[in-house]
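Help! Submission page says 'invalid entity' but I think these are all valid:
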Amino acid sequence: MSLIKDFTKGIWKENPVLVMLLGMCPTLAVTNNAENGLSMGVATTCVLLGCNIVISMVRNIVPKKIRIPVYIVVIATFVTVVELLMAAYAPPAINKSLGIFIPLIVVNCIVLGRAEAFASKTGVMRSIMDALGMGLGFALALTALGGAREFLATGSLFQIKIIIPWTVDFMLWTSAPGAFIILGCFLAGMNKLNMRKAVKRGEVYIPPQGLDCRHCRLCDIDTTGEEIE
Amino acid sequence: MKKLKETENIIVLGIFLGICGAIAALVLAYFADLTREPIKKMKMQEVNNALKEVLPAFDNSPGNTTFKKDGVTFYGAKKNGKLVAVAAAGDTMKGYSGKIVAMVGLELNGKIRTIAVVDGKKLSAVLITEQKETPGLGTVVCGRNRQKTIVSIFEKPGKDANLPPGNMILDQFAGKKAGKTPWQVTKTGGKFDYMTGATISSKAVTGVVYKIARTFVVNRKEIIKELSKAEK
């Protein structure tokens, strides 16, 4: 039962992109079409799975003092392996457009975050489920973002034109500002949905820390620069 | 085991980290060895695909029949042991965001090849194989993208399906021979059209195609002699 819960929590309740707001660099940078989003998601899932398995296996022998360096070595190894395999077997177009973002998975907070927060405390089976769930959540979020951006810009999905008379591309959505706008819309939509669900159940909705305006003190600073108590 | 987890002995920690690094290095060495050949093949395949588009039918492997001159790489296409056409790849740094690499198919007399005539329009053997231009502007100058649509993926491919799609800018070069005066766009007094909003990209493409074609015209005899030699 708890295995299923470990798997499903990554997809919606603790979605790494839309709820925890982790891994924003690949999220914003490579999702200019659905294909790129999906391949980035799959690559990250592979790394996540490998790291979670290895780290949960060695969790009882790694000295506490050097656990972070050891995790980074494990993660970097898996990322390099994935990079080599992609260069050898993935279509060249995908390789070219993902480029530098594959090696950058090393510093993706999701991977180190899951290693430190989950795999280093739990057994192998649960870690595998956690990695698969988180990876799937990440891949789904990236594909949805990429799909939305690609469709708004060119009227196509996965490089296949859906609306045929659409000939002039609307480049805003595939460039950087479009990424922020679409991601903002996604987060707002996610919050709205969760809020409605909570109201229906008769509970008070508490947004996740990263999305909650009430925790942010940015607006509490007055013009003199002093904080209002 | 418990002891190892709580240890603060710096030597033990160092040895542990060293062992981790060594294992990682072994794993990486294994995978690097495993993927060396496929990566090489993948890179060759990319060049070969471009060569197939700009060259006529050939029965050798032009990717291995190469000759370099003045920064331009020439590939020879042979049929029955005789050189029939030459492809050339060269680059320029004058693009709007840096490097543009072009692949041009040339007749042996120095004219840029015409692949086919579609609806009265010539299709030139000019391809841009690498560019970082602005999406939507510069990429229009450089691109020959095959567009799939929801209808076309269910249709049977027609007879023109193997031809690359046309490109207003690149197709202007069909049948042209590079003379002494460098090619220029109409804006700077030349005779080639350019894209409004992508003047720099158009200029860069015109420039690099001229450079490649001119290098061939100037060194024609030497290049043909080198490429006619038996394959290495």
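Support: the input was valid. A stray whitespace character was the problem, and the output above is from the cleaned input. The interface with chain B takes residues 60-66, 69-70, 73-74, 76-77, 80-81, 84-85, 87-89, 92, 156, 159-162, 164, 169, 171, 174-175 of chain A (CB under 8 Å).
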